[in-house]
Amino acid sequence: MRRKPVSLADAERAIETLRLFNPKKDIERFFAESDPARVLAGRVGPTKECLTVESLCDHMREPQDTHLKTCHHCLEALHRYKSVYERAFVPAKPKFWLDPIEVTTDGSLPLQFDFILQCSAPVRVRAEAIEVIEPFSRAECHGPKAIRHDALVGASYKFHCITTVPESMAHLKPGNECSETVLVRGHTEEGFLFRASGPVRLHRLEG
Ligand SMILES: [Zn+2]
């Protein structure tokens, strides 16, 4: 993959994003008071074993560091660094999808399960603004619980769904399972209309 060199326009966009997500912070003053050498030597996590900003580049090529297996601060920083390095910036139109869903039922109603909506941009989604359209009908969505909301990697939300067994799955005998595709539509607080789909596996417990 050939990367475009970072341009002045990129820097301006990055500063705009910083302003957007830190409206109370004086960004100009923050940069004026920042010493690049000290920033690069600074650690990205709270312990003295944590990686420095400068060493993130080396760790991207050698991700086997044992510290990374236990420190989520450093792992998150490395993840962000990688997004910037690979220029995986927020696209103009965000992408939406669902993580694979597992539902276990004993046959009683209503059917209840959690699902995770993934968004490639840091958008906000409310339960009232989404609707499960397939294969479940009259599904109620509750929540969400925000799992991640990050300027670089996007957002994920966990919803709780209360619904009935869809017709296509009603034949399911105890001990069996079947798969379908769930389709959700909605809009974000920012005004993006979206459709997101993902696989669901319904498992019916032995009677
Ligand atoms: Zn660390």
How are strands sequenced across the largest beta sheet? 1-3-6-5
Please identify the structural class as seen in this structure.
alpha+beta
What is the radius of gyration computed over CA atoms, rounded to a whole number of angstroms?
22 Å
Q: Number of helix segments?
A: 6
Looking at the structure, what is the overall shape? elongated
Number of strands: 8
N-to-C SSE string, H for helix and E for strand: HHHHHHEEEEEEEE
* Percent strand: 25-35%
Largest sheet: 4 strands, antiparallel
- What CATH calls the topology of the largest domain is Immunoglobulin-like
Roughly how much helix do the residues carry, as a percent range? 10-25%
* Count of the domains: 2
Bound molecules: zinc ion
What is the residue-mean pLDDT, rounded to a whole number?
Answer: 85
CATH architectural type of the largest domain: Sandwich
Pick out the low-confidence regions: none
TL;DR of this structure?
The protein is of the alpha+beta class and 207 residues long. It has helices spanning 8-21, 27-32, 36-41, 56-61, 66-70, 72-85, and strands spanning 96-98, 101-105, 111-119, 130-134, 140-150, 154-163, 177-187, 193-204. The protein folds into 2 domains: 8-85, no CATH class; 96-204, Immunoglobulin-like.
Question: How would you describe this structure to a colleague?
Answer:
It is a single chain. By secondary structure, the protein is an alpha+beta fold. The protein has two domains: 8-85, no CATH class; 96-204, Immunoglobulin-like (Sandwich). Helix content is 25%, strand content 32%. The protein has a four-stranded antiparallel β-sheet, with no helix packed on it. The longest helix is centred in the N-terminal third of the chain and has 14 residues, at 8-21. The chain is elongated and about 65 Å long. The model has no long low-confidence stretch (mean pLDDT 85). The structure holds zinc ion. Zinc ion is lined by residues 45, 47, 50, 67, 71, 73-74. The site of zinc ion has 7 residues, from helix 6.
